[in-house]
Amino acid sequence: MKKTCLISIAILLLATVPPAQAAKCKYEINSVDKFTKVKTQKTKWASLDPWSVIIGSDSYLVAAISADLNAGSKTLGLQLIRQQSSSYRPRDYELRDVIVVPEGARLLILMADDTIVELPALHEVRASAGYAASNGQQTEFEIKTVAEINFALDESDVEALMKQEAKRIRVEAEDHNYDVFIAEALRDNFQWALGCIQ
Questions:
Q1: What pTM value is reported for the model?
Q2: Domain extent listing, the chain
Q3: What is the dihedral of CA 163, 167, 173, 175, to 10 degrees?
Q4: Does position 53 have pLDDT exceeding 90, yes or no?
């Protein structure tokens, strides 16, 4: 009788634990202001694809997401990392504004049922690149650009993203659209990130 009761309670607890608590939340920021009592949270970046998306012959893209909660306002962060290789030292003008996402540009998220969730960029992002020699002779250079874009979320967006997995995203940037296919094993990262800032 006691075993049956304990097993029933354990099953009940497992069934009622929200997904965010089932998968351990990891934060870059998780604090409450002592004076205002305002909660601030930012999850660590969660990869959308363990492999890179190829852009052209010498360039590839890696993407990750995070969720933020600040003074009751939620945002979705997207990190795009574009890496290129070059056989010559890049000129200054080639390093400026490699990724440009205008304010209001859309993040399109293709969901499992083929509906699309659209999120607007909160502000313009102009990401410039840095470079380093990949060998000692200064004949090969690795060029890296990191853009972190924040998108506005309202409750209907959160509800749509929590309901099902995302399959693919598109960021409408000034230079071109960045499409990322989300690895099947990582498609629940949207739910994980958003569940951690409830």
A1: 0.80
A2: 22-195
A3: 180
A4: no
